[in-house]
Amino acid sequence: MWVRSGMTYRASFVFTVFGNLLMTGLDFVGILLMFTQVDSLGGWSLPEIAMLYGLSVTSFGIADMLLGSMDVLGARMRDGSFDVLLVRPVPVLAQVGADRFALRRLGRVAQGAVVLGWALSSVDVEWTAVKVLLVPVMVLSGAAIFSAVFVAGAAFQIFAQDAAEVQNAFTYGGTTLLQYPPTVFGKDLVRGATFMLPLAFVNWVPAAHILDRPYPIGLPGWASFASPLVAVGCCALAGLAWRTGLRSYRSTGS
After folding, report:
1. 41 backbone dihedrals φ, ψ, rounded to 5°
2. Nearest Cα residue to 247 out of 153, 155, 154
């Protein structure tokens, strides 16, 4: 329904997607401006950081397109409309994800993919079959990890009644964090992003293997290939949190 609604005015849809692409691209413009003053950032070159940027934005864009409407959950609980979703013969999570589905968010995915394509063609890497295969694995695993963060944030909103900005701090804030190399951050932050909220497995850890760079906190070599396992674990924990939140939900009665 929302796709048909968004496509009703085709010209408006095209301009909205293009505008979304330009707006998200401003983040990368900021990185380009930085590199007019420096040759490297944290020891990483522009193509290497562009690779991190492209992986982060593309993965997040896929998750945002599928589940980005989760931040309206708090408003639905306050006005009582969340109860309507509970009585429909469709999984509540699917309904919340599809609520106000915006196909225009394809602009973010396209912009991230363009930067990623340029970075992969420009970065100084001796490509092997394993490294080539690791790129799509990173994108899909990263999308799953970000999706799990969206779902976990939505579950938290059920308990807090409205905490959309807390959720956004870890989703939008997380993708911004991953656009820069881990070497520019303190080791405590890198440890937190690796072990507590494992966003580092979206790009930092596997990209270090592709670029033949040591990871700042010293992980075993097999960790570079652990992104799919981390994604499965995050999705399982997010699903558990979601089911727990639904069981504890109490209607407003309105």
Report:
1. -130, 110
2. 155
Which residue reads 């919340």 in tokens?
Answer: 96
Main-chain dihedrals φ then ψ at residue 239, nearest 5 degrees? -65, -40
**Residue 151 and residue 68 in contact, taking contact as beta carbons nearer than 8 Å:** no
Other Cβ atoms less than 10 A from the Cβ of 156: the count is 19
Look-up: residue for tokens 């401003």? Answer: 26
Q: Is the dihedral of CA 66, 67, 68, 74 positive or negative?
A: positive
Name the token pair of 238.
Answer: 């997010």
- Of the candidates 107, 133, 118, 126, which has an alpha carbon nearest to the alpha carbon of residue 50? 118
DSSP 8-class letter at 217: T
Give buried/exposed letters for 125-147 (b at 16+ CB in 10 A, else e): eeeeeebeebbeebbebbbbbbb
- pLDDT tens for 146-191 read 999 999 988 888 877 666 677 778 888 899 999 999 999 999 999 9
The answer to whether the beta carbons of residues 205 and 56 sit under 8 Å apart is no
